[in-house]
Amino acid sequence: MVRRVFFSFHFDNDVMRVQLVRNMGALEGNEPISVNDWETVKRGEEPSIKRWIENTMKDCDCIIVLIGSETANRPWVDYEIRKAWEMKKGILGIYIHNLPCPRTGKSHKGLNPFDKIFFTDGTPLSSKIKCYDPNPLDAYNDIKTGIQRIVELAIQEAKQRN
Fold first, then answer.
1. Residue 5 belongs to what H/E stretch?
2. Considering only CA atoms, which of 112, 106, 91 is closest in space to residue 14?
3. What is the band of 162 on the pLDDT scale with cuts at 50, 70, 90?
4. What SS3 string covers 77-131?
5. Residue 143 contacts residue 21 (beta carbons within 8 Å)
6. pLDDT one-digit tens code per residue, 128-152
7. For residues 29-57, average pLDDT
8. Which domain holds residue 139?
9. Residue 148, Cβ neighbours under 10 Å: how many?
10. The domain spanning residue 90 has which CATH number?
11. Edge-to-edge strands of the sheet including 4-8?
């Protein structure tokens, strides 16, 4: 079964790496928003951006946070994670620092963005959400062959917490 996913990532640093993941063809991911459409969304400022995120996420089975070197510091990634949890979506992280970018090559491993979000009892969200760190020698094929399985696991885990 093909699952619909929402990719959360740091655009400036990782868009080329994210395109590699999107182009694997293993998942039905949200289509990238055009530059013109994104400019329209941004003009509406925070309410418009939140509405776009929520509307795009609503029909997805899982959110995949593609973790690059700066992803954990991005406020909209944080919002997308919190919204996905609230919407009871499957959530997982995949480190993409070892995927090659034609502009910058490989990157350094970023922090886990789930470590920065806490439940009311002080437990980090990272205690509930798994991050997949692909084999650095063949990150592309490791992600390509494993992504459907880890998405299914994340969706099943979301069903168990509901």
1. strand 4-8
2. 106
3. low
4. HHHHHHHHHHCCCEEEEEECCCCCECCCECCCCCCCHHHHCECCCCCEHHHCCCE
5. yes
6. 999 999 999 999 999 999 999 999 9
7. 79
8. 4-161
9. 15
10. 3.40.50.450
11. 28-29, 4-8, 62-67, 90-95, 131-132
